[in-house]
Design brief:
Elements lengths: L2 E2 L26 E7 L1 E9 L5 E9 L5 E4 L4 E4 L7 E2 L5 E6 L1 E6 L7 E2 L12 E6 L6 E7 L10 E7 L7 E8 L2 E7 L5 E7 L9 E2 L8 E8 L2 E6 L2 E5 L6 E5 L1 E4 L1 E2 L6 E5 L3 E5 L6 E5 L10 E6 L7 E7 L8 E6 L6 E2 L14 E8 L2 E7 L5 E3 L7 E2 L27 E5 L5 E5 L4 E6 L6
Parallel strand pairs: 6-12, 23-27
Antiparallel strand pairs: 1-10, 2-8, 3-4, 3-7, 5-6, 9-10, 9-11, 11-12, 13-37, 14-15, 15-16, 16-17, 18-19, 19-20, 20-21, 22-24, 24-25, 25-26, 27-28, 28-29, 29-30, 31-32, 32-33, 33-34, 35-36, 36-37
Length: 447
């Protein structure tokens, strides 16, 4: 029950901390020494009996979110924010200290309430807690703030479009190296070029022409292996240490398989239709003959450690094959000797469609694919066997991230783009018309 009061001498003998039962004891000290909020409701999304998205209330206790008391700056706040959806409009508190404790709302400073543990306090409003010493000589005020996450932790927030310094490039191929994002392509004059910027911030630096890599025969696909860039042009594999100066590495290479992660192995298709690989670009191992349906011209590869054994890795490769409407998906374990095609699921809507410039992303412990024509992210939780469209799939709510959605501008068939991820948890998307978007699931952002 709230009680309005005025700090008069009649109330000064009160001492919330009860350090002494003798009410005649008086001290010039005033401080709050402990502050805890009580129980509150958290509104969360769930799937009801009818498989529909619904809101439910979950009861949580503030003891899980300790309040920090800054005695120097007279602030009380929680470092770890309460969950998104927390209702703090009526919350009880447990407060201990030296002196008589009261509180007031900053938007109504004329009324001060004597604190009571049964009070239902509205922490959506700015609050000031006041403590008056028992001898009446000193008043101390604390600004109290209960922080709540303003963004749902699973939501994907995008920033963009960013156009400052980013050039118009066709046939774009973005990669990440050493916390720098690079985007290769042909500039407006038809010359192979690259633009780059630090992941942590800064401006794009326009288009820099590539030296030693001609546009004639270039496949517009760049990958990173062993901290170097590699690409194929006119049947020759080229390499570069800085992305600007390119040199011939090996002839007789038809195409390079673009990797979305650097495991130190470069995969390629040779001119005599063999799948080959190398770690040092000098010794090449023939793995197998190019099988039927193998996407040897525009394949995207992603490798990642197994959750059950981090000493082993799985590679998933996909791309168009035989002019079909759906991609051919292949897999290989690090201990295998050949690539194996994954059987396409019987349900057509679970197959991976063919898209221009498919990009694989290993994100939030799942495999995602995105590209022009897919109209959104496709997610696979079974190593590339089945692919679900994230923003429309409602079954098995806990397994599929329906919040993985593209900016509306990128949905459709008229925007050509490619995507990569960085070590900070961000997804970068570059478009051929000179725009850059980057975003991340809130809980995955690394500082």
């Amino acid at each position: 029950m709230r009680s309005r009061f005025i700090f008069l001498l009649a109330f000064l003998p009160l001492c919330v901390s009860c350090l002494k039962e003798d009410n005649s004891y008086k001290t010039p000290q005033a401080a709050i020494t402990s502050f805890t909020i009580g129980y509150y409701n958290v509104r969360v999304h769930d799937i009801n009996w009818y498989r529909r998205d619904t809101l439910v209330n979950i009861r949580e206790g503030g003891v899980m979110y300790p309040m920090t008391i800054d005695q120097v700056n007279n602030r009380i706040y929680n470092i770890d924010s309460l969950a998104y959806g927390s209702d703090i409009s009526g919350v009880t508190t447990s407060v201990y200290g030296l002196g008589t404790i009261g509180y007031s709302y900053d938007d109504d400073p004329g009324i001060t309430y004597l604190w009571n543990s049964a009070d239902s306090i509205d922490f959506t409003r700015k609050l000031t807690f006041s403590v008056v010493s028992t001898d009446g000589s000193y008043t101390r005020k604390y600004q109290v703030e209960v922080n709540v996450r303003k963004v749902f932790p699973d939501s994907l927030l995008w920033e963009g479009p960013d156009t400052a310094g980013f050039p118009v490039l066709s046939g774009i191929s973005p990669v990440i190296r050493d916390d720098t994002v690079f985007c290769f392509g042909l500039d407006t004059t038809g010359v192979p070029a690259v633009s780059f910027r630090p992941v942590s911030g800064g401006a794009w630096n326009g288009a820099h022409a590539l030296s030693g890599l001609a546009a004639d025969g270039w496949q517009h696909r760049v990958t990173v292996c062993g901290n170097k860039f590699y690409s194929v042009s006119g049947g020759t594999l080229y390499g570069s240490s800085d992305g600007l100066e390119w040199n011939s590495v090996r002839t007789g290479i038809k195409s390079v398989i673009v990797s979305c992660d650097d495991y130190g192995v470069l995969w390629a298709v040779s001119g005599d239709s063999n799948i080959v690989r190398s770690q040092d670009m000098e010794e090449w191992t023939t793995v197998q003959r190019v099988p039927e349906h193998f996407p040897d011209s525009a394949a995207s590869l992603f490798s990642y450690p197994l959750s059950t054994n981090t000493m082993l890795s799985r590679s998933v490769l996909a791309g168009p094959a035989d002019d079909t409407l759906y991609s051919s998906v292949w897999t290989m374990l690090s201990g295998d000797t050949v690539w194996t095609e994954i059987d396409a699921p019987a349900r057509i809507d679970l197959r991976l469609p063919v898209g221009r410039g498919l990009s694989f992303l290993r994100y939030d412990d799942a495999l995602f694919c995105v590209g022009q024509g897919l109209d959104g992210f496709r997610q696979s939780n079974d190593n590339g066997v089945t692919w679900y469209k994230c923003d429309s799939y409602a079954e098995d709510y806990s397994s599929w991230n329906k919040y993985m959605q593209l900016p509306s501008y990128l949905k459709g068939d008229d925007v050509v783009y490619a995507a990569v991820t960085d070590r900070k948890g961000y997804i970068w998307i570059m478009t051929e018309n000179g725009q850059v978007w980057h975003g991340a699931i809130n809980r995955l952002i690394k500082k």
